[in-house]
Amino acid sequence: MARFPKSLISLCAAACLSLLGGHARAASDATAIPNLRPALDSQVLQPAMWKLTGGKSTIYILGSLHALPEKFTWRTPAVDKAIASADVFLFETNIDFATAELHYFIDRQGYLPRGQTLRQRLSPVALEQYSALITDRRLDKNVLDYLRPGVALWVINLTGGAKTDTRLVPGVDAELLRYAKGHAKQVGYLETLQSQFEMIAQLGGGAQTKMLEKSLAEMSKAENKYPALLAAWSEGDLPKLMSADDEDPEQKVLLLDNRNKAWLPKIEALLTTSKTYLITVGAAHLAGKNSVIDLMCQKHWKLQRVQTGAGKPPQACPGAIG
Predict the structure, then answer these.
(1) Which of the four pLDDT bands, split at 50, 70 and 90, describes residue 202?
(2) Among 190, 241, 22, 193, which residue's Cα sits nearest to residue 96?
(3) 282: burial class by Cβ within 10 Å (0-12, 13-18, 19+)?
(4) Which parts of the chain are beta strand (E)?
(5) What pTM did the predictor assign?
(6) For the chain, which residues make up each domain, given as ranges?
(7) 20 to 30 A Cα–Cα from 231, which one of 73, 100, 215, 273?
(8) More confident residue, 152 or 270
């Protein structure tokens, strides 16, 4: 499915609602959750986290889910220990002031040329799907119709989900950012928010209308996959998480692989300082080939998978003790 990964969905949903004039039905009101009781069931909750040691520093790497059900308890004693020991908290990008930066991007790069609309570009079938989606999710067509296809798809995914009464709120990243600032910890980022916005403009390789039409077709028939994603993330089962989040292979290189490779030297540089770091990135960046973890394993770093729950985690690197 040609859609935006969780790393981009980490941008504040409030920015999307502001853009759409308050008419959008937010994902926070529209997502079912699996039958999990993480506050009660220690056999289930064990989010994926790694520990990297070498040089002068210790680095924890935590896989995030950027949106979680309200009042969802996800922290375990092992995760709390890593949080308490961290001197520096690092995230993918700065999610503070996202609304102002979003509007800056939209004003500069987000709109179609004057006189053009999305409706004019869509096929009859896609137009029907698009109209139904606007009605279902209470989107403001007077704003959405004038966005470039790639930006429109990003906005649609921010507001996506099945109709339920469950409320989603900003997830792991936002909670840890609040903690870090509340405890006067140093905060840093692996990339700029602008760099993520620029990727939106590149999506589709010049065929953003086709990408939007493909996604509209799949949205019209697909079941909501968030419950499976939440269950897999809660269990620390990254292969299951990736199978539930069927990223378009053609977009994966741009949205995941290239960014993972760009982050690697920045993470390596941390090993030269006498500090403890907690790096929190979307769990999709830590699973499978060319993930951050895979790249580390290829370089034979001293890496171990931390046991964050009752179950014994898999080895950090296949064929290695970790």
Answers:
(1) low
(2) 193
(3) buried
(4) 49-54, 57-64, 67-69, 88-91, 168-170, 186-189, 276-282, 302-305
(5) 0.77
(6) 6-305
(7) 215
(8) 270
